[in-house]
């Protein structure tokens, strides 16, 4: 992969990587996706364990034939859609402009 | 996933109606094939370079690619399998769809954009970026081919059963002919259309599948006053209150509970390691479009799984678990039976044609992924060491398509009548054990080394396959693949709970024990490129 002649010499990527700008991008990216990934996985496995081992609780009828289990399951859909929307708006606002700046600098050969 | 086997319901339904029904089904299939072939032919005019053939010239938009991802992902297992599982096992069937959906967050947050920025055509491009090229590429190509092969075999077996019964052919020779026809059609699509043609087939199929499911969902809801609780009540009245509660399928013993946990782990971590899903990220021009693709995919797939909840309980309420189980296709006949119940032979024909289109599109996506991996990773990068003559790589890819198509036909004929439903779950387990650890480590862990990658990939792959070989799905249970002998010692049907942590552990262990450090300059390059998109290949101008 690295054989396709980058615009900057290979050794310079270490310099780019050390810039405050790049470190900020990396921190923003990881600071957002890591906690969120941990959170949704915990929520998913909490749900799976409940469905697997807490049958009585999950079978509780809330309204009519709607059970706690069904509501929590639909809750997984809701959180998935919400996290998707949240991440996209975060990436558009906070990640893309910064990444674009660094990329343009790289392509102009500023560094 | 129990899927794919036979939608024999259709045959049963056909017998109860006029003789004309199989011909109606054939006509609808034929129309789908004709329309998609024309589109594939038109799309293939610009297939010149490797980027055209493997990655559709990176010219698809996010929404188009997202629809194609949904087309690739919503296999017959999702449609027939999940509807049937909910119809018979109620709530436990619903659990599948949640794992399949939540898994997309792993792809969205951790994998899609960074992969798009650092790779060109295959998963191995990313994994070998800063590690030793040849061994890592060979390992990544191996896991890619294994996952594709398992998935492909499951789809082909399903195709034979489904289509044969819909067309009223139920002898072995006739089924084999149908498998061969499906395989031949798939070869034509992929050979001529490349990634562009395959993508269009998937887009059309996704649109048909989601529209068909939406139509039936509204219909079922209308019959129950647009009240979910009423529908659930009707399902419970027919199948017993237990269909609303968890545990009907997995709550039997401690082993089945553990098995479910294992499956849940494989589902949520497998998706982001499925090679045919990863490859779709290269068909868009930028990482931002890759992100939009996943967003579209998540909405479409999520919506579809909500439909299957209604369809599954609808089949339970209107047809009943006993009637579904008694139909020739068993569990998988729930959706076709429901279609027949609602809209008679015409809707049955349409839904069956959609199921057929589903199999064809998924098989085509798997084949182009496997062929790309072989020609790009094994032939061009390892055998020819990057010095291929112009056009040679794509030529090898085309030959590989034919070879894989023939292997799939032979395999599909060979497994007729076998219980191969576990193959899809196994493909997810292998993807989660062998692919995902290495993908995450190489994207996020600077120190990750070649040894770590090799241990993780071969260890994850090997352990998943060994455990399944000695599990009850292969021997020692009533539904086992091999009857009459019992050599199983692993109690679970899904190896994920052991093989996935093992894959992660081996990647870590291999890295901390290797004395040879990888080149820090290339690691820096990979990090910068993955986050900024610098140097990523854009769309091919035509």
- Fraction in beta strands of chain B: under 5%
Tally the structural domains of chain A.
1
Q: Major sheet of chain A: order of its strands?
A: 1-2
Which CATH top level class of chain B fits? Answer: Mainly Alpha
State the end-to-end CA separation of chain B. 42 Å
Q: What is the string of SSEs of chain B from the N terminus onward? A: HHHHHHHHHHHHHHHHHHHH
Task: Count every beta strand of chain B, where a strand is a DSSP E run of 2 or more residues.
Answer: 0
CATH architecture designation of chain B: Up-down Bundle
Total discrete domains of chain B: 1
Q: What form of chain B results from the Cα inertia axes? A: globular
The rounded Rg of chain B comes to: 22 Å
Low-confidence regions of chain A: 1-6
User: Percent of residues of chain B in helical segments?
Assistant: over 70%
Mean pLDDT of chain B: 87
| Helical amount of chain A | over 70%
Report low-confidence residues of chain B grouped into runs of 5 or more: 1-20
* Span between termini of chain A: 22 Å
Main sheet attributes: strand count, strand direction, barrel closure of chain A: 2 strands, antiparallel
Number of helices, where a helix is a run of at least 4 consecutive DSSP H or I residues of chain B = 20
SSE diagram, text form:
The complex is a heterodimer of chains A (111) and B (542).
Chain A lengths: L11 H7 L1 H34 L1 H4 L2 E3 L2 E2 H41 L3
Helix pairs in contact in A: 2-4
Chain B lengths: L8 H8 L4 H23 L6 H6 L6 H12 L2 H14 L1 H28 L4 H5 L5 H34 L5 H52 L4 H12 L14 H17 L4 H6 L6 H32 L2 H6 L7 H50 L8 H23 L7 H23 L5 H20 L26 H18 L6 H13 L10
Helix pairs in contact in B: 1-15, 2-9, 2-15, 4-9, 4-13, 5-6, 5-13, 5-15, 6-11, 6-13, 6-20, 8-9, 8-15, 8-16, 8-17, 8-18, 9-13, 9-15, 9-16, 10-13, 11-17, 11-19, 13-15, 15-16, 17-18, 17-19, 18-19
Structural features, described:
The complex is a heterodimer of chains A (111) and B (542). With 111 residues, chain A is mainly alpha-helical. Chain A has one domain. Chain A is built from 4 helices and 2 strands, in the order αααββα. Chain B has one domain: Sodium/glucose cotransporter (Up-down Bundle). Helices cover 74% and strands 0% of the residues of chain B. Classes of the chains: A mainly alpha (111), B mainly alpha (542).
